[in-house]
Amino acid sequence: MTLYSQITSNKLKSILIIVLFVVFIATLSFVYVRATGGGIGIVGMAIIFSGIMSFGSYYYSDKMVLALSRARQIQKKDHPQLFNTVENLCIGAGIPLPRIYIIEDSAPNAFATGRDPKHAVVCVTTGILEKLNKAELEGVIAHELSHIRNYDIRMMSIVVILVGVVTLMADFFMRSLWFGGNRRDRDSGNIQGLFLILGIVFALLSPLVATLIQLSVSRKREFLADASGALLTRYPEGLASALVKIGKDKEPLEAANNATAHLYIANPFKDKNINNWFSGLFNTHPPIEERVKILRSM
Asked: pTM of the predicted model, to two decimals?
């Protein structure tokens, strides 16, 4: 497997997942409208409300994430080696220099956030600066810059919005049944009853399905960033070695929470292991062993 074939494969898989997500939302809309006797306003209200809420989070999500993570912005004089590493890789990637933040935590980890390359942030922990060598640090930074260059930071914002739409649609639908009932006519009563049952089932299960799709997108983008980062440094072993060290470090990242966990280069909750296929569905990251194996096969 080459770097280019891995990148192409991951891009196609990510696009497919997004398309399926949109089809999923369209199907929900159709079922909910038929179940409520043509109440298109319910779906519209959910989408509009979700859009208003998401607008603010789209433009200010980086500030919220950095505040939740207790990160502080640094300048070149604060850590020249880190700045030089980011600057050199940005030149190679052809993107503007992002703002650089540090989290005072000895657990090794890093993430990127923002909405596009011109409004991006790279954040690392003090632990990753202390425990990785130069080649490994370059691999990690290249991975995070790849998230920025590949617009993963924007894609994940879009996916979060889609998950919000699904959840609100389900909530509005259930509330409409509880408070307003539904309208039936004699000719379509049986068909509408069938859609009503489907609507209730979808309303109960769709938030879970949407979350699984979100996690799947996140995992695919991690594979893509691994391959893109390796292409940027031309040294896959640097990132592979860094992931091995991060995986072996058992210290959890105190600054992380469920809302920000998917952003990090590796699962910040070290006590959550993947023991089987089912539990793996709910993990924000692919197994480190699998990522390392792919990197070392390039």
From this structure: 0.76
